Amino acid sequence: MTDPLFSPSWPDGLPVGEGWVTGLPTAEIRFPYAGSLVARAPVGDELLAARALDEALDVRDEVGRLPSHVRRAALFGAHAVLREHREEFERLLVLETGKPLVDCRVEVDRTLLTLQTAAEEVARLHGETVPLDLLPSGEGLLGFWVRKPIGVVVGITGFNYPMLLAAHKIAPALAAGCPTIVKPAPQTPLATLWLVHAVREALMVSGGPAAAVQLVTGGPEVGVALTTDRRIGAVSFTGSAVVGHRIARDAAPTKVLLELGSNAALVVAEDADLDAAVGAVIRGGYYASGQACISVQRVLVVEAVRADFLARLADRIGEVVTGDPREEATRVSALIDERSSARVRDWLDQAVMAGATLVHGGSFDAGVISPAVLLDVPDGQPAWDEEIFGPVVTVRSVASVDEAFDVVNASRYGLHASVYTASLATAFAAIDRIETGGVVVNEVPGFRSDVMPYGGVKDSGAGREGPRFAIDELTVTRMAVIRPATH
Question: 384: buried, middle or exposed (CB in 10 Å: 19+, 13-18, 0-12)?
């Protein structure tokens, strides 16, 4: 067997408690594009998950009482480590995800911003006074509320942006004073392990316990052990709707925050800048090889401009470079594993058999699906109804933007959608009518700044990410009522 492509920069084993648990079985992490060995990652089990929970509960009160300056310094310390080693993190992300280098650079940028803004939010974690004397019974009473940590947070992340998704679990939880246990996707644990190591080291330097942030790898059984323990305060999950719904049922009544993906729509109005709209499809439909929950999947074009839009799209689709994700120009590469590639190809075949027209791409060469464009996919087909999570864009024409909004809302998902238009009236109508967590005007639906509230409605989940908003989710209000004098 060839030597691994990456040598870990953290201790052996898994970070559980104040140290690292060694002697664990390992699993091979392979480069999705070439199949070569990246590294061997330690694999946890239910017993280790239970141990991590006990360790987190042991430090829950200590972490909840950590001074603001300690929590803030730890997050800034991890930020400094990531910034210093960013090129190594980028390379590791390319190797374990198979995601193009350009997208891995974006992931590191966004992780840095998430750590920084979470650290800054520590200074804004406060409550308010309440005028209790609005009723006569409240005369003489002093009222105020404070925010308290919700308790141990279990964060479960997906494979497509493993380090960024972990940062969105760890950073707000630590800012709020909550211990965190992270379970990364089995395919992509490496960058998350390194991030957790950096946070733990920064915590200890700042005066906090390493056990405030732990990581346990493993399969679904580990996730079940972590999420169904009634002693935890919250679960934050990023992944499929099927798994997310199961977690919500099994974890009840524990608070569950869910980011479950979508099949994001882009509406092209009759007055849209068609070159800009086509550019949005090119940029927004194929970044991260289509493995992004708010990548462009459904394009709804007003019939009057359909032919012109499609002609311009045909002229530009060749711009999307496929191949080795380590190359600067690559935009589409191999999906995370063979099963994902087989599913996407199967959905393409099903759509064509149901009457859709494949006008570009869809071939499978050297493990890479070429950027595909499908026209007129019927309702009921998974390529239209579900999240394809691959380099596929579907296009359908509508009579008007009003009809387009109805079609967008007919989906069971509702994470992000975008509208291209020159009309403020259409823009505001979209914001008012489209049932998604975010409506983006004249930009890709995949636009996300990590400081904004991010999350969906319907089957796209519940709760909001973004450090400020996640901290709100991971704290509870405690009301204080004081009568200073009893006579």
Answer: buried
One-letter amino acid at 100 equals P
Q: Which region holds residue 40: left if phi is over 0, alpha if psi is between -120 and 50, else beta? A: beta
Name the active-site residue from 96, 107, 121, 259: 259
Q: Could you tell me where in the chain the CATH 3.40.309.10 domains are found?
A: 265-449
Residue matched to tokens 């009222």: 143
pLDDT value at residue 424: 98
pLDDT digits (tens, 9 = 90+) for 150-204: 999 999 999 999 999 999 999 999 999 999 999 999 999 999 999 999 999 999 9
CA 348 to chain centroid, in Å, comes to: 25
Cα dihedral 183→188→193→198 (10° resolution) = -110
Catalytic residue among 178, 293, 387, 465: 293
Question: Which position has the token pair 């990548």?
Answer: 295
Strand partners, 444: none
Examine residue 209 and say whether the peptide bond preceding it is cis (omega within 30 degrees of 0): no
Is residue 293 part of the annotated active site? The answer reads: yes
CATH superfamily of 265-449: Aldehyde Dehydrogenase; Chain A, domain 2 (3.40.309.10)
Write out the DSSP string of 414-456. -SEEEEE-S-HHHHHHHHHH--SSEEEESS-TT---TTS-B--
Distance in angstroms (rounded) separating the CA atoms of residues 349 and 352: 5
> Over 70: is that where the pLDDT of 124 sits?
yes
Distance of CA 191 to the CA centre of its chain: 15
CA distance 120 to 189: 27
Query: Three-state secondary structure along 246-291?
Result: HHHHHHCCCEEEEECCCCCEEEECCCCCHHHHHHHHHHHHHHHHHC
Q: Looking at the domain covering 14-260+461-479, what would its CATH class be?
A: alpha beta
Decide if 96 is catalytic.
no
